[in-house]
Amino acid sequence: MSTMPQYRLIYFNARARAETSRMIFAAAGVEYEDVRITKEQWRTEKSSGKYPFDQVPCLEIDGKFVLAQSRAIGRYLANEYGFAGRSNLEKAKIDMIIDVCEELYVGVRQIFFEKDETKKAEHKADFVVKADSILAALEKIHVANNGGSGFFVGNLPTWADFEFFVRMEYAPFFDVAILDRYPKLKALVERTSSIPQIAAWLKKRPKTEF
Ligand SMILES: N[C@@H](CCC(=O)N[C@@H](CS)C(=O)NCC(=O)O)C(=O)O
User: Fold this and answer.
1) What angle separates helix 183-194 from helix 196-204, to the nearest 10 degrees?
2) Residue 196 Cα to ligand 1 middle (Å)
3) Domain count, the chain
4) Does 2 fall in a domain?
């Protein structure tokens, strides 16, 4: 008899690089420990030798193996629980979306952590141009799949939809109305957040700024 692995997802109290994995857990209805360490705890944990790259997020499985790198963790969980596409081509299309979402995240992060207000405004202006070109491309990709009436890849939600949702939650940091210019993507985000297990998670998750 196989038993469900004991998972601990270790990160800070932020959505950032862990939220997509938390959404996969939620959508799959899989139990896990959502460990949110403080910066003080991290100072001692960092050099403990436990974390492959001395960074988080990390996924601990059955108290032993620690998997690092947010997208490796997400891809593993998506494969385990059926959110990673059904063929190698579907998986590759999902990866393509995941990778472009990383570009969105890096831009948002730069804006969010910039202390200098002038530089922040510059990053914002540059980033809106980039985000618009990425979203225009993503909308085309979405529409090419069933006219954009479902999800990014195939007929069911995948972790690409979760990742996109998570990144679009950051729109207020650069252009709160950006999705109004991409109605099909706006509807996709709404569809994703309406999946009952996801809606339940969004309601109960800790509220964090980033
Ligand atoms: N490429 C890595 C980046 C991980 C990363 O930058 N982690 C940051 C938090 S988002 C971290 O651990 N910072 C604390 C430190 O480096 O000590 C991933 O996607 O997981």
Assistant:
1) 80
2) 30
3) 2
4) no
Query: Which atom belonging to ligand 1 lies closest to the Cα atom of 68?
Result: 20
Give yes or no for a contact between 47 and 54, defined as CB atoms under 8 angstroms apart.
yes
* Best residue among 11, 39, 48, 56 to mutate for probing ligand 1, ranked by most atoms within 8 Å of CB: 56
The dihedral sign for the CA sequence 137, 96, 15, 32: positive
**Do residue 113 and residue 71 come from a single domain?**
no
Q: Which domain holds residue 140?
A: 88-194
Q: Give the residue among 100, 118, 146 at the shortest CA–CA distance from 92.
A: 100
C-alpha of residue 54 to centroid of ligand 1, in Å:
8
pTM over 0.85: yes
Residue 128's contacts (CB-CB under 8 Å, 6 or more residues apart) are 174, 175, 178
Q: What tokens does 61 get? A: 């499985």
| Claim to verify: residue 67 and residue 46 sit in the same structural domain | yes
Question: Does one domain contain both 54 and 93?
Answer: no
pLDDT single digits (tens) 93-135: 999 999 999 999 999 999 999 999 999 999 999 999 999 999 9
Atom of ligand 1 nearest to the CA of 12: 9
61: phi then psi, degrees, rounded to nearest 5 = -120, 120
